[in-house]
Amino acid sequence: xxxxxxxxxxxxxxxxxxxxxxxxxxxxxxxxxxxxxxxxxxxxxxxxxxxxxxxxxxxxxxxxxxxxxxxxxxxxxxxxxxxxxxxxxxxxxxxxxxxxxxxxxxxxxxxxxxxxxxxxxxxxxxxxxxxxxxxxxxxxxxxxxxxxxxxxxxxxxxxxxxxxxxxxxxxxxxxxxxxxxxxxxxxxxxxxxxxxxxxxxxxxxxxxxxxxxxxxxxxxxxxxxxxxxxxxxxxxxxxxxxxxxxxxxxxxxxxxxxxxxxxxxxxxxxxxxxxxxxxxxxxxxxx
Length: 287
Known about the structure:
Elements: E1 3-14, E2 17-25, E3 31-39, E4 46-49, E5 67-76, E6 79-89, E7 95-104, E8 112-114, E9 131-139, E10 142-156, E11 159-171, E12 177-185, E13 194-203, E14 206-214, E15 218-225, E16 231-233, E17 253-260, E18 263-269, H1 271-274, E19 278-282
Antiparallel strand pairs: 1-2, 2-3, 3-4, 5-6, 6-7, 7-8, 9-10, 10-11, 11-12, 13-14, 14-15, 15-16, 17-18, 18-19
């Protein structure tokens, strides 16, 4: 853990204890996934930090040989599924991403084993560039996934720049996914070029999604849907913005929204894509 604490994920352990998974970078700038434990009664006090990584980069030439960044945790038939972003460095473009899967130990510990040496969601004929951060939620007899899909690269001031938004997929087992290019959250304007890290919760009668969106710099956006597939953006209702100064004063991104004891929380990153760490926000019922 040389730098960063990015893309946080909360897992309830017992009482007010939560394990937070996050990604850090080593001396070669490769992403590894680790964890720490907090007590929501005093969330700024870290109780324990993993001494060994939970996910490490894969073997030479594999889809995740440049980094393994956890993005979502869910349970499938009693087994924890940890979805993660696999990183490959590129030549003509800086990187290529795809989505991998790791299975949790049955003892409930923070030990995970890669499901396969290859990704479970990768580029296709219809999606030829890359896919990345996802959110996977049980939805009746299926699982719903909202994931980042790159729509293309272009040169900006002589350097390649990506453009990506959020699409929708379905699965019967959480492993094999059906995709048809269905767009969930699209670009709001010509200046927006990156929408990422969806976090979806289902309240009575309505689906809610928080996500990152970027023009000049990342902000956290918000959308609503009655069916989880067709969404309306209400970014002004996201409930959070950058601070006046400090670790999250330049940008905020990568939200993870969860509930505990009737209270709604959000984990999120601040300046420089998680280099300054992650924080926690709580819904203010007075606003």
